[in-house]
């Protein structure tokens, strides 16, 4: 049996691990279009910021691949999947056969169609190579424009701030930074902190054009409002799109991401998908959608790997969440975070601390923690579990006395789970 | 497969909350044992006693079989080491993904150090200092087979990840 994983990051490696646990003999091959072996992808911002040295970027120790007998092929981009003959075509012309295929190609940064994106000094920020390219370009830079005030944009901005020596301006289309994850109060706290630490923030505006000089090197941007900002570097961090271009003729079912069932199987026989490229089940919204976060990618990968090796595992679903200790401020969001008419929102604010809990009837469906994020995982578990809360429990959550909640209740839950199964 | 030390001592730490009397002896014992891992901040204990109404609940890592903190770790610094989930603090950057995913609330972000710290079992001690300090017997060493039996009930997997339990352990 030959297992091929396209993508050498969290989902692909989780699948490889899960396969190896069940099939000691099968051949496992992991393909990566990058130069590096698996590394902690979000670490690129710590790397660029000078906090993490290159030798600590590796996600698994060097012995990992040997111990698990996993063959890695770096610099190998897949250009075509031929599901009928169960073959892959690589960019260098190699033909590869597979018995079970895992698609975990993640996301590709989206660069909007506008003038000047091909100028020198324009970067995206999702790979180690990107971080290296930015590092190399930095000596000639005084001012940086980061397009997009989402997670990737803020990571890049924080890394550059940490590194020092350049002025950073974040341009965000929405009225606030992290607009999709944070509400107004939370976002204001973060934005104030950013400005305090010397990062400029421009909201409700967007870059319409990147202006190169005579040598094709970026020298400024033009905003929708007409403002012109000089810069020697632009980081485009508007978002990522599922990396599915090579699948166009394969007949695989793609909605926004690849459509998968609860076994992580696609509509093609023997082909599975997981991670940021696949639409897994979202517990809170009760539908399938892309939840582009690490824990979900890893869990989906484990499930896919198990099923590839003949086991039968079902994915229970995940929730959107994120933790971002950037700009010396801890921010955590889980589940739904924005006000909706059918949700009851409770806020608590003291100085730099902000907490918000969202309830749908007797269920906790979302939370924001800014400042003190201790025991956020307890809330995550309650949200994911969709636990019906008694008035007493609800009160404990509101008063911040929830740290031991799950530890106390684990036996009840475990028994219920056993009875249900 | 068990690492040599655990195979030698064959132990895990089991919590019997009903026996805890909040004497708090375990906390300084813990702080002393892990002090060497703190470089900037005062050692932050990795065991807490939470009072809930009349009840007391000692909180420390449960070493979940399908540990959410291992799944969520972006650096790969947290991994399974036999019966225990341990951490390589040299590689931790304090991203707090694990804090966000631990259903038992036992991972603490130490902001000064930028490290997310939790009980790693004190595998270098024959008897974990918190266990040695616990007079009422709420903390107890159990052999790893007994522990496996007890913790089978404790796993986060039983409720939060019911379908994922046997998919993988995060070994490396």
Question: Any chance you could write out the topology, listing elements then pairs?
Answer:
The complex is a heterodimer of chains A (421) and B (172).
Chain A: E1 2-6, H1 10-22, E2 27-31, H2 44-48, H3 63-67, E3 70-73, E4 78-82, E5 87-90, E6 95-97, E7 100-103, E8 107-109, E9 122-123, H4 128-137, E10 143-147, H5 151-163, E11 167-171, H6 184-196, E12 200-202, E13 207-212, E14 218-223, E15 228-230, E16 233-236, E17 240-242, E18 258-259, E19 271-273, E20 278-282, E21 287-289, H7 294-308, E22 321-326, E23 329-335, E24 344-350, E25 353-360, E26 363-370, H8 376-385, H9 391-398, H10 405-420
Parallel strand pairs in A: 1-2, 1-7, 2-3, 7-19, 9-16, 10-11, 10-16, 11-12, 18-20
Antiparallel strand pairs in A: 4-5, 5-6, 8-17, 13-14, 14-15, 20-21, 22-23, 23-26, 24-25, 25-26
Helix pairs in contact in A: 1-7
Chain B: H1 4-9, E1 12-15, H2 26-34, E2 48-52, E3 55-59, H3 68-72, E4 78-81, E5 84-87, H4 97-101, E6 108-110, E7 115-117, H5 129-133, E8 139-142, H6 144-151
Antiparallel strand pairs in B: 1-8, 2-3, 4-5, 6-7
Describe the overall structure:
Chain A has helices at 10-22, 44-48, 63-67, 128-137, 151-163, 184-196, 294-308, 376-385, 391-398, 405-420; strands at 2-6, 27-31, 70-73, 78-82, 87-90, 95-97, 100-103, 107-109, 122-123, 143-147, 167-171, 200-202, 207-212, 218-223, 228-230, 233-236, 240-242, 258-259, 271-273, 278-282, 287-289, 321-326, 329-335, 344-350, 353-360, 363-370. Chain A has 421 residues and is of the alpha/beta class. In chain A, the strands form 7 sheets. Chain A has a 5-stranded parallel sheet with strand order 3-2-1-7-19. Chain A has a 5-stranded parallel sheet with strand order 9-16-10-11-12. In chain A, helix 1 packs parallel to helix 7 (294-308). The longest helix of chain A is centred in the last third of the chain and has 16 residues, at 405-420. Chain A is globular and about 60 Å long. Chain B has 172 residues and is α+β, with helices and mostly antiparallel strands. The longest helix of chain B has 9 residues, at 26-34. The model of chain B is unreliable at 1-7 and 157-172 (pLDDT under 50). In chain B, a hairpin with a 4-residue loop joins strand 6 (108-110) and strand 7 (115-117). Chain B is 22% helix and 19% strand. Chains A and B meet through helix 1, helix 7, strand 22, strand 23 and helix 8 of A and strand 2, strand 3, helix 3 and helix 4 of B.
């Amino acid at each position: 049996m030959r297992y091929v994983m396209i993508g050498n990051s969290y989902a692909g490696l989780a699948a490889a691990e899960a396969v190896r646990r069940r099939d000691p003999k099968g051949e496992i091959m992991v393909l990566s279009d990058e130069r590096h072996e698996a590394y902690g992808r979000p670490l690129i911002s710590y790397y660029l910021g000078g906090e993490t040295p290159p030798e600590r970027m590796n996600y698994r120790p060097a012995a990992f691949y040997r111990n698990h007998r996993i063959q890695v092929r770096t610099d190998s981009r897949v250009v075509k999947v031929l599901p009928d003959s169960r073959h892959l075509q690589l960019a260098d012309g190699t033909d590869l056969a597979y018995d079970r295929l895992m698609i975990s190609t993640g996301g590709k940064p989206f660069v909007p169609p506008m003038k000047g994106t091909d100028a020198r000094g324009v970067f995206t920020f999702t790979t180690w190579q990107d971080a290296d390219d930015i590092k190399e370009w930095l000596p000639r830079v005084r001012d940086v424009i980061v397009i997009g005030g989402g997670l990737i944009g803020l990571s890049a901005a924080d890394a550059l701030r940490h590194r020092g020596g350049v002025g950073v301006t974040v341009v965000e289309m929405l009225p606030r930074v992290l607009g999709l994850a944070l509400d107004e109060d939370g976002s204001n706290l973060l934005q104030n902190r950013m400005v305090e630490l010397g990062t400029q923030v421009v909201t409700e505006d967007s870059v319409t054009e990147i202006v190169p000089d005579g040598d094709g090197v970026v020298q400024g941007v033009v905003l929708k409002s007409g403002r012109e900002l000089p810069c020697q570097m632009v980081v485009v961090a508007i978002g990522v799109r599922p990396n599915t271009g090579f699948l166009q003729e394969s007949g695989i079912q793609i909605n926004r991401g690849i459509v998968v069932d609860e076994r992580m199987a696609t509509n093609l026989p023997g082909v599975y998908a997981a991670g940021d490229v696949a639409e897994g089940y979202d517990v809170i919204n009760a539908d399938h959608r892309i939840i582009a976060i690490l824990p979900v990618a890893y869990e989906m990968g484990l499930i896919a790997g198990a099923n590839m090796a003949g086991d039968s595992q079902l994915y229970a679903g995940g929730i959107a969440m994120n933790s971002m200790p950037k700009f010396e401020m801890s921010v955590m969001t889980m589940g739904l975070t924005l006000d909706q008419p059918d949700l009851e929102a409770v806020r608590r604010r003291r100085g730099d601390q902000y907490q918000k809990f969202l309830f749908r009837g007797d269920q906790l469906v979302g939370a924001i923690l800014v400042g003190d994020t201790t025991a956020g995982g307890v809330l995550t578990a309650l949200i994911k579990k969709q636990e019906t809360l008694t008035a007493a429990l609800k009160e404990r959550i509101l008063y911040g006395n929830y740290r031991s909640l799950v530890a106390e209740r684990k036996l009840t839950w475990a028994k219920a789970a056993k009875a249900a199964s | 497969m068990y690492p040599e030390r655990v195979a030698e001592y064959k132990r895990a730490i089991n919590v019997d909350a009903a026996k805890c009397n909040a004497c708090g002896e375990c906390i300084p014992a813990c702080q002393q044992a892990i002090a060497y891992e703190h470089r900037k901040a005062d050692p932050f204990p990795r065991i807490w006693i939470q009072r809930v109404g009349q009840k007391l609940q000692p909180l420390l890592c449960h070493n979940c079989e399908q540990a959410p903190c291992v799944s969520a770790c972006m650096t790969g610094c947290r991994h399974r080491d036999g019966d225990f989930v341990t951490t390589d603090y040299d590689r931790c950057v304090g991203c707090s993904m694990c804090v966000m995913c631990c259903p038992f609330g036992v991972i603490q972000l130490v902001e000064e150090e930028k490290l997310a710290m939790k009980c790693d079992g004190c595998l270098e001690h024959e008897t974990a200092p918190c266990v040695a300090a616990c007079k009422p017997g709420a903390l107890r060493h159990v052999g790893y087979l007994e522990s496996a039996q007890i913790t089978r009930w404790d796993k986060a997997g039983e409720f939060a990840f019911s379908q994922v339990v046997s998919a993988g352990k995060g070994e490396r």
